Amino acid sequence: MFYRLLPFIFVFLWSSAFVTAKIGLEYATPFAFLGVRFLITFILFGVITGAILLYVAKPTAKNTNTTSTEPVLATALVGLLLHGGYLGASFFAMASGLGSAMAALIVSTQPLLTTTLAIFLFREMPSRLQWTGIGFGFCGVILALWPTLSINPPITGIVASVVALISITIGTLLHKRIGGQISLMKSNMIQAFAASLFFGALVLTVETPAIDWTSRFVFALSWQILAVSAGAYVILMIMIKRKTVAATTSYLFLVPPSTAIIAYLALNEPLSAITISGFGFAAFGVYLVTRFQKI
After folding, report:
1. Contacts of 76 (CB under 8 A, 6+ apart)
2. Domain total for the chain?
3. Which whole-number Å values give the CA distances from 119 to 102, 173, 192, 237, 242, in the listed order?
4. Those residues with Cβ within 8 angstroms of residue 222's Cβ, 6 or more apart along the chain or in another chain
5. Does 157 map to a domain?
6. 148 and 137 in contact (C-beta within 8 Å)?
7. Is residue 237 part of a domain?
8. Fewest C-beta in 10 Å: which of 3, 194, 228, 235?
9. Which of 191, 81, 102 is nearest to 155 (CA)?
10. Contact 169, 29 (CB under 8 A)
11. pLDDT digit string, tens, across residues 138-189
12. CA atoms of 41 and 159, how far apart (whole Å)
């Protein structure tokens, strides 16, 4: 029963990430915001991993061998793609003036791209019903975001969103391939460490960092760390491991319309009947893709 609730918890937490990111970007530059977030996330997962090793899974003669370098490096690369590439490019796109709706629309094509590539990489052939569901999901996203799409989006923002799309696609496929070689907590610690180094390098080279430590920024940062990095992202890793790529990524179709609803409730942003109907289309599409999948 618990595993059946994970996708819905994931959608809520992942969708809320945009609202808190929008709040946080009012008080910080994008790479400084993300750098602090992942440094604290690394420390958090490091403490949890250390506690598990000390009190739960004490080393024995059988498990004292060091972890192979190959999965560690691959896990770090996943962190660079999903955290550095996807989030870094998404935050940069929003900071450069691209509307959140347009950014979400570009990235929401990820299930289509990922599912297509998974056919060749993992021989995960979706059924006709699943392809139909993916189509419904994509149409639902377009409907949900149509009223708020930018008319003249900045080119830099579009390019950054495409980079985010490619990064999350490759990162998802790579994690699907290496999943299970490293424990979940250790994997997240490695990924957060790689991301913190990546954003630290960007802060030192391409950005003049600035953070205004207001109560609203601290709330946004805390939510991004606890609810998104330690919540939604961990759930995503679990779903990627347990489900097919098509079934997992199809839930991302629910993120843009869910974000619109959360933004309406939290920030009083407009919510139209078209957006609500788009949510219905996306939900039906996800149902078609996942109805034969076991969590």
Report:
1. 190, 191, 193, 194
2. 1
3. 28, 11, 29, 20, 17
4. none
5. yes
6. no
7. yes
8. 3
9. 102
10. no
11. 888 888 777 766 567 788 988 998 999 999 999 988 888 886 678 888 899 9
12. 28
For residue 78, give its domain range: 2-290
Question: Is residue 295 a part of any domain in this protein?
Answer: no
Chain centroid to CA 21: how far? 12
Residues 6 or more apart in contact with residue 69 via CB below 8 angstroms: none
DSSP string, 51-70: HIIIIIS---TTT-SPPPHH
Please, where are the H alpha helices in the chain? 2-24, 30-51, 69-79, 88-95, 100-107, 110-121, 128-145, 155-178, 184-205, 215-223, 233-242, 245-250, 255-267, 273-290
Q: How far apart are CA 184 and CA 242, in angstroms?
A: 13
Q: Which residue has the tokens 């660079």?
A: 80
267/139 Cα distance (integer angstroms): 25
Give domain status of residue 127, yes or no: yes
User: Alpha-carbon distance 229 to 221, whole Å?
Assistant: 11
